Automatic annotation (TrEMBL):
E.C. designation(s): 2.1.1.37
Protein name, UniProt field: DNA (cytosine-5-)-methyltransferase
Gene3D superfamilies: DNA Methylase, subunit A, domain 2, Vaccinia Virus protein VP39
Active site: C123
UniProt entry tagged with the keyword Cell cycle: no
PROSITE patterns: C5_MTASE_1, N6_MTASE, SAM_MT_C5
Gene Ontology MF term list: DNA (cytosine-5-)-methyltransferase activity; DNA binding; endonuclease activity; site-specific DNA-methyltransferase (adenine-specific) activity
Homology family: Belongs to the class I-like SAM-binding methyltransferase superfamily. C5-methyltransferase family.
Catalytic activity: a 2'-deoxycytidine in DNA + S-adenosyl-L-methionine = a 5-methyl-2'-deoxycytidine in DNA + S-adenosyl-L-homocysteine + H(+)
Length: 862
């Protein structure tokens, strides 16, 4: 096209802008296609030939970008039209800035949220089969590149796959510290994702060959209705080789190629090895031969040198009535692991390997169609195989079985299509079906059990339960339950478990606990609740779930706090009610009688006390006030003694429609040697680990779960514990007026060393006599600070003024120092504001300034 314009003035102008015009319209077309795309998207890292993630393509996912070091393997992905655009195929070392720049440029071009990142980094330093490990630390650190990309891209899901030893293998993390890969994944991504790892044999999940691998799946924490358990592949029994290969013709002659299938051929090898394997039975290795001439050997200088048999499975014939063996990269040689056909004297053909690795026939290894390849002459076929076969075999050996990732892709598709129900939708459904009536709710669940995801049924049932507000028991969302269950100990030495749920509701934790402890021989659940309607629904749900005979359920309709229960539970877990017992309630004396902390009326505190007497491992979701409120000082000491080793801070995110801050904790006395605690924060999106003594230091009045080096630096500058606090909550609007003798200051009136007048807001009284706060009137050195705020500021209480309960009045414990405006001005600085956020554990509700929290309003040292 360019040539026809080259001889005219217009042509010169056109040629000058041709490339820009072409690029502009190409980009417009690109964006049009992307905007029309409604498919979920994925990125594949260390993708080799794309065998595994082909399972995503065949299940309707759109590949935004794929990265592979070797161009010859990336070409195979192009043959399979994996990416819509050529720019999506990114060859090169992903650790290099230029390669990463291409990847992120492609992501920006798509201008869409990435649904999945798949990463299968090299495993040479981890594999049991590899005896040439030496120092593979830098190579293993390729995993860290995957972690960094996931952290920056923030996909909805991520998938890491690698060998069995993957998570325990050391790597160099982003902080340049050497640590196990598992720790690097959790420390970098655990704040943003719910993460589950399992060692699986892929033969049980879609592959037809034994392949034990670690699979790590993360689900972004803002996706509340999906857990990694929903994404993990579903079990599928493998086919035996007798069934799997039944229709393939035998290959008895060395070098033979099937007429109808170029990929089904007898790979040639040194004929002197043929006697080594000719008489082997299934499961036997050539090293089992009794005839010395049939044992693998070399002849050097006329001397027979026998080969080494390191793994015990070299030169070994596989079984016909089993699934295939683990496929390694050197599946082309007899000397690799279990490569010999059960009935024929050869290694498995490419087609046989494809079937074992569940690679579908539609997968293309070359640009040529298979019909064209099969039509080639015998010599042409040999030439083709000589050029391509080794690369194909190695790609198969290092791949993830296609069916396994196809299984995962199907689960993601299904999960994404099941959106979370909004509060409005739930309320409308409850109203329409009149589900607040227990009989109607029971009937609805029975009739619709298969029509709704289980997590959605739980959601509907909990919100429909009219007794929910009376018992102050709140719906535990499936992702919240997962985070706690996933952090529980594995109890590896125990075959049987006994678990207590003291306020079970309708059993939100049970399906997750059943998955967590699926490897146990027997799990007995004692399920206690005070609400009979909840227990009736629970019985129905357990019947419908049909979890299997290894799980036994005892339904107990009692008040947990007064029930007589065994004292030998392996685990107590749950979400106890949060209400207060009224002073007039006769149960208060009963509850306090057996409680350790008698300074409170909070039900959850009594639950903690009793739970700690019934099990050495306790995991509960409770109000966040437990970490800082004065009334729970005894409870905090109990938890330290009980070896609390994990806190999950949900802030206000745990319960929809309920304005309450919560945490979960795990106390595990079976792990007494562990002096560290993990703090997982949903509000800061962080996962931190440090010594318990650091977060629970006696230098401060309560636990500081976000304490850090910046906090410590500021703390060094301050003299603490100089004030005491007072608030008068007697004064209400009913007591105040628009004018009067004495001004009543409120939080919005307090500025930085100033009093702010606000029209229509300012209040007055004529006398302070009825109020406790009257003792502060016209008193010197009284400091006012707004009570519930993350924007601390201070001013002196002026003459003829008092303050209502929205303002804390601070007075010095010792009267040695005269306070100045400079002292107060520090509280309005950004430095103190950040310090104060940490001091208040990033709370949003439990922000009252009491005689514990006032500790942190220190004075700058001279």
């Amino acid at each position: 096209m360019k040539n026809q314009y080259s001889k005219s003035l217009y042509g010169v102008f056109y040629l000058a802008f041709y490339d820009k015009i072409h690029a502009f319209f190409a980009e417009q077309l690109f964006q049009l296609i992307i905007n029309m795309n409604k498919k979920p998207t994925y990125i594949s890292l260390f993708s080799s030939a794309g065998v595994g993630c082909y399972g995503f393509k065949t299940n309707g996912f759109e590949c935004v970008a794929t990265n592979e070091l070797l161009e010859k393997r990336l070409k195979i992905q192009k043959y399979n039209q994996k990416c819509r655009f050529d720019s999506g195929y990114i060859a090169g070392d992903i650790t290099l800035p230029e390669t990463q720049a291409k990847l992120f440029a492609e992501i920006r071009r798509w201008n869409t949220e990435i649904d999945v990142v798949i990463a299968t980094p090299p495993c040479q330093g981890m594999s049991v089969a590899n005896h040439k490990k030496n120092n593979e630390m830098a190579r293993n650190s390729l995993v860290v590149e995957s972690i960094k990309i996931v952290r920056e891209v923030r996909p909805k899901f991520f998938i890491f796959e690698n060998v069995k030893a993957f998570l325990k293998t050391p790597c160099t993390d982003t902080d340049y510290q050497e640590k196990p890969i598992g720790e690097a994944i959790w420390s970098n991504l655990g704040g943003h994702y719910n993460i589950l790892s399992n060692v699986l044999n892929f033969k049980d999940y879609g592959a037809n060959s034994s392949r034990t691998r670690t699979l790590v799946i993360g689900v972004r924490k803002d996706i509340h209705h999906i857990t990694p358990y929903d994404i993990f592949p579903k079990q599928t029994p493998p086919k035996t080789l007798r069934t799997l290969l039944a229709d393939l013709p035998p290959l008895m002659q060395m070098g033979e190629i099937s007429d109808d299938d170029i990929y089904h051929s007898y790979r040639e090898f040194d004929r002197r090895m043929l006697p080594w394997i000719a008489q082997l039975k299934e499961g036997e290795s050539a090293f089992h031969n009794t005839d010395p001439a049939r044992i693998p050997h070399q002849i050097k200088n006329g001397e027979i040198i026998y080969n080494q048999n390191k793994n015990g499975d070299k030169y070994a014939r596989w079984f016909l009535d089993r699934e295939g063996p683990c496929i390694h990269t050197r599946n082309d040689i007899l000397a690799s692991q279990n490569t010999i056909h059960p009935t024929e004297n050869r290694v498995f053909s490419v087609r046989e390997l494809m079937r074992m690795m569940s690679i579908p026939p539609s997968f293309k290894w070359t640009a040529q169609d298979e019909k064209q390849l099969n039509a080639l002459s015998f010599d042409e076929k040999k030439t083709f195989l000589k050029k391509e076969e080794l690369n194909i075999r190695r790609c198969i050996g290092e791949s993830v079985p296609t069916a396994v990732l196809a299984n995962v892709a199907q689960n993601i598709q299904a999960a994404l299509q099941q959106s979370e129900l909004s509060m409005t939708e739930i309320q409308n459904l409850i109203k329409r079906e009149n589900l607040s009536l227990a009989d109607n709710l029971y009937r609805f669940i029975e009739q619709h059990f298969d029509a709704y995801p289980f997590s959605r049924l739980l959601q509907i049932a909990e919100y429909a339960n009219a007794a929910r507000s009376e018992t102050a028991a709140y719906f535990t969302r499936i992702d919240i339950a997962f985070g706690l269950v996933n952090a529980l100990p594995d109890f590896k030495k125990k075959k049987n478990l006994r678990i207590l749920e003291p306020s079970v509701g309708i059993g939100n934790f049970i399906p997750l606990l059943a998955k967590k402890y699926a490897d146990k021989e027997k799990v007995i659940f004692d399920l206690v609740d005070i609400d009979s309607n909840s227990l009736n629904l629970l019985s129905l749900l357990l019947k419908k779930l049909n979890l299997g005979s290894k799980f036994e359920f005892n339904i107990i309709h009692q008040d947990f706090l007064t029930a007589t229960l065994p004292e030998n539970y392996d685990l107590v877990i749950g979400n106890p009610p949060y209400g207060k017992v009224k002073a007039s309630d006769k149960n208060l004396a009963l509850y306090r009688k057996n409680a350790i902390n008698k300074d409170t009326q909070n039900i959850f505190s009594f639950f903690i006390d009793k739970a700690l007497t019934l099990s050495k491992t306790v995991a509960l979701v409770v109000p966040k006030s437990v970490i800082n409120a004065p009334e729970f000082q005894i409870t905090r000491q109990q938890l330290i003694t009980a070896n609390i080793n994990r806190i999950i801070d949900y802030g206000e995110k745990a319960f929809k429609g309920v304005k309450i801050e919560t945490i979960a904790f795990i106390a595990d006395q079976t792990d007494k040697d562990n002096q560290h605690i993990t703090i997982e924060s949903h509000i800061q999106e962080t996962l931190i680990q440090n010594c318990k003594n650091y977060f629970f230091s006696d230098n401060f009045p309560y636990w500081l779960i976000y304490r850090n080096s910046e906090f410590d630096q500021i703390a060094q500058k301050l003299e603490f514990n100089v004030f005491q606090s007072f608030r008068d909550r007697q004064i209400t609007k009913a007591h105040t007026q628009n004018s009067g003798n004495i001004r009543v200051l409120k939080s919005r009136n307090i500025g930085n060393n100033e009093i702010i007048d606000i029209e229509g807001y300012d209040s007055y009284v004529d006398s302070v006599a009825p109020f406790s706060v009257g003792k502060f009137i016209n008193r010197k050195n009284v400091v006012m600070i707004p009570n519930l705020t993350y924007k601390p500021r201070a001013a002196f209480l002026p003459e003829n003024s008092i303050a209502d309960g929205s303002v804390a009045l601070l007075t010095m414990k010792k009267h040695e120092k005269i306070l100045t405006q400079r002292d107060l001005a520090y509280y309005a600085t950004p430095e103190f504001e950040q310090f104060y956020r940490v001091a208040r554990n990033y709370g949003s509700r439990s922000m009252n300034i009491d005689n514990h929290s006032v500790f942190f309003f220190g004075l700058l040292k001279d």
